[in-house]
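hiii, so i know i said id send this last week but things got crazy w the move. better late than never?? heres the sequnce for the chain we talked about at the cafe, plus the structure i predicted for it. fair warning i was half asleep when i ran it
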Amino acid sequence: MPSTCIAPRGTPRPEPSTVAPGLTVEAHVARLTSPSRLAALEATGLLDGVANDVLDRLTRLTTRLLEVPVALVSLVDDRGQHFPGLTGLGGWPGDQRGTPLSHSFCQHVVATDRPLLIEDAGTNALVRNNLAFGELGVVAYLGVPLRTSEGETLGSLCAINSHQIQWTPEQVATLEDLAAAAMAEIELRVTTRALIARQAELEVAHSALQAANNRLQVQAVRDPLTGLLNRRGFAELARQHLATARRLGTPVVVAVMDLDGFKQINDTLGHDVGDEALVDMAALLKKTCRDADLVARLGGDEFALLLTNTTETDVAVIRTRLETALASLNAEPGREYRLASSMGMVSWIAEAPVSMAVLLKEADVAMYVDKRARKELVGTQSAEATE
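okay and structure toks below
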């Protein structure tokens, strides 16, 4: 039993024992191993046992028109021949849809780029030592080139019989017409595969572009250090929240706050630690506020909150919640600094709506009032401690 395996890519190809008249062994091998031809073969996607219904139909038509039992669409590379279309071929070559080059007449069609007519392989010097004759019983063979529109010969459409045949010019012409139909199917497949591959590339590129756009959109409205909304993002979403609150008649509280002593943290511990302080405050605010609220870093150590469906009576509760969260954070062991903040809050109601710009300005004024009050309290406490 001969080997049923087409040699893997990269395996040295045995040189043919016989080549067509007018060719050298080197020219024969160079034709089969041409990089452009091998690339065209790979582009078909029809190697290594792949079957194609249209090519199978064409081989059935070939057997009927030429009155032979076997017909093959044979694509020949530097490892063997592959049969994406076949009729009447049994045994291991039919099961595998291919043979090594040791069992190939079609390689000579590729090497010469012209039809090959074998009436009796046993008396033909070119193929009588080929194992297609000795082991597979191929006696009569007619093969015509399968040639691309770019001029690359990929293989052969061939008709085969197990006894002698005197091939006629009409049979050659018929087989050439059928070969043209086979190449039309193969090139259509190549074009379709290329379009599918291109579409896949475009989809990948589109996804990458969309992801980049999404990142840019996020960067446009998010603070890169804390991940909170930036001033622009806060303004855009706050307008939407106020429009919804006005439609529903629900109250809103807007707060502005900054870190007390932030400059001292930067000056004494460095800006990296100052960044950590900002990140800590951002995490505290996100944890303390609800999902429906807006939390933003306006710039520097200044933060803003928009608290939905919140009234003036809730302000004291909100302050207490934030102060409790700050105290808990400051109590963590090993901290290099303590976080403290001043805050100003203003209410918005649907019956007397004002703009976000006005709300932020009023909240900012209230925040500085709170900051002065805290400084005065600290000063009073210090004076009392020295008495």
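btw The first strand starts at residue 70 and ends at 76. thought thatd interest u
miss u guys!!
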